[in-house]
Structures are given as C-alpha cells and as structure tokens.
Amino acid sequence: MKKKVLVTGGTGYIGSHTVVELMNAGFTPIIVDNLSNSNISVLDGIKKITGIEPVFENIDCKDYIALDRFFEKYQGIEAIINFAASKAVGESVEKPLLYYRNNLMSLVNLLELMPKHGIDNIVFSSSCTVYGQPDVLPVTEQSPIKPATSPYGSTKQMSETIIADTVYAYSNLKAILLRYFNPIGAHPSGEIGELPNGIPNNLLPYVTQTACGLREKLRIFGDDYNTEDGSCIRDFINVVDLAKAHVVAVKRMLENKSEKSVEIFNLGTGRGVSVFELVSAFEKATGVKVPFEVAPRRDGDIEKVWADTSYANEVLGWKAQETLEDTLRSAWNWEQKLMSRDGNS
Ligand code: UD1
Questions:
Q1: pTM surpassing 0.85?
Q2: Which of 234, 276, 305 has most ligand 1 atoms within 8 Å of its beta carbon, as the pocket-test mutant?
Q3: Confidence of residue 300 (pLDDT cuts 50, 70, 90)
C-alpha cells in the first residue's frame, strides 16, 4: 500500500513540486490548500507530469474543525509536510497579524490534531531568514538565530520553537525542520512553476517577467554592499532539488532513521551568487537580455548568506544536483509557457 502524506500548501510553488516528487517516489500525497496564493490549475500540471490525479481538499488549515474532519475522512496519513504559510516579507511588515494568524494558527492546529489522529511525523518549511545576517559564512545549522527582521521571519522562528516544544511534550512526535535558502526555477517539463500574484517580490520571477517584456526593467536593490560586485549574495537552490529533500526527510522519519526527535537541515547549494551574477547567468543561459537599473537598497535585505550544506549532504544523504544554468533555463521555459497560456505573447 502506498503511504499517505498530507501536503498542506500543496498547490503552492514548493508544495506542488514536492507533490510530484512524492508521487515519483511511490507515495500518495494528499493536498490541502485554501488556494489563497495558488491556482487550482496546478493540479492539471501535476497530472500531466505524473499521470496521476492528485487528491485535493480545499481547506484552510486555520479552520480546526475542518481539519479535524479531514483527518477523520483520510485515515492512515503517516506524515505531514507543512508548506501552508504566507511568505512575502514586505507584506508581513504591513500586515503582521495576517502573518501571525496564517502561519502560526495553521501550524498549531496541525500539531494539536496529530496526536489525536495518530500521526507522528511532520516536516516543516523553515527558512534561512532565521539566521539573519550571519557573522560567519557559510551558515551551519548551529549558527546563531538572529532577531527576525520581519513578522514573516518571526513566524518562522516561532514555528520552529512551537514544534520543538510540542515534540518535547509528546514523545511519539518527530519533526524535521528544513531551512530553505533561495528556491528558484521550475519543473523541467514546464508544467508547474512559480506563480507570483501581481508584481513579483522575489528576484527570479522579476527577471523572467522583465525578460519577456511584462516588466520594463529589473531594479537591482543596491550596488554598494560589502561584496565583490556590490550587490547582495544568495544561495539559489533549484526547486526540484529542494522538493526531493522533502521526500528524503519523510522517508528518514518513516524508516526511523532520525537521530533526534527534532532535526534541522540547511537546504542550499553551498554556493553564494550575487544578484548581478544571477542576472548575467540568466542572460548567458537563455540568450535573452534583461534590462536593469541599480536602485536603492531594499529595507530589511541581508547583505550575504549562503549555506554550509555538509550536514544535509552527509546525514540526510541529499545534495543539490542541478546547475544554475539549467535552473535558470527551467524558469525561462516556465515563463514562456505562462505567456503563451495566458495569450499574452
Ligand atoms: C526573502 C526572505 C526569505 C524568504 C523569501 C521568500 C529574508 C532575509 N529573506 O528572500 O527568507 O524565504 O524571501 O519570499 O527575509 N532583488 C532585486 N530586485 C528585485 C527583487 C530582488 O535586486 O526586484 C534582490 C534582493 O534585494 C535580494 C535578492 O535579490 O538581494 C534576493 O531577493 P528575493 O528573491 O526577494 O529573496 P530574499 O529577500 O533573499
């Protein structure tokens, strides 16, 4: 029998890629999503790639009663991957309570319902934002947690604490916290990818939208940072690589390989790439020019951060495989597909 895994936020960017990888690995993912920042058409994309129609329930994880009923209906779920959360840093500064409500209530509901329904394992989407601007690079999982610079960041830190406290109190529970660096790219099939709402906040969707003429110019936020070319440095990780790490994490818990009841892993490539470098790598990989201008620094941006991935590589047995060039091409392929689908080209 295929093992059932609940994927909250499974129609979102990272969630949808993870659903595909779970199916490829022989699991039955069950998607719960309220479609607040995703589109139902993602289910078709998943089916086109895998040939399997994903199970989907339109439920808001903040709704305890609906979630309780969901678990009654779908007995035998063995693990949860919790992606359901809001993730726009700027929006979180303007609407802090929305972020605390969405991100924390959903998590608390899931954790409360896990023992009730006999589910022991949870994988949580955390972020390198918990490290703030690290004093030492690359960052390891032991690097200090810095005060959060946004309510979004606070919710990730608080969620990690909430999970650790809950696992401590309930001896059956186990958790793996995955701290993502900067996920980019799309599925190589071009059937699923990132679907930003409105004007993209994140760098690569802005780059691809500029490349296809939807936006006039990319603004590069700051060229006076203390880095070689003056722009910020990030660790850009391919979304399919990232998705695969979730499958490894679920298997690790189900096979009782976890060494501790709460394990934390950095998910990155280990390579720092500057914003200027990313733009020129995109131009080189795709042959498409990206008009840009240098703009003032963006509030709250970290100067540089990239991962020490040795713990994830050795203990989790996972390593990012895709090249930056292939990843950038996959994002471009997806953007072009979106353009032709929306009839804008
Ligand atoms: C942020 C969060 C990260 C979160 C992610 C999800 C922090 C420190 N980081 O990542 O935790 O998971 O959002 O959305 O809170 N840039 C431009 N022009 C643009 C857009 C971005 O120059 O139009 C630059 C930014 O200044 C930054 C880099 O590109 O230096 C990456 O930005 P972005 O893609 O927004 O990701 P982060 O801010 O690193």
A1: yes
A2: 234
A3: confident
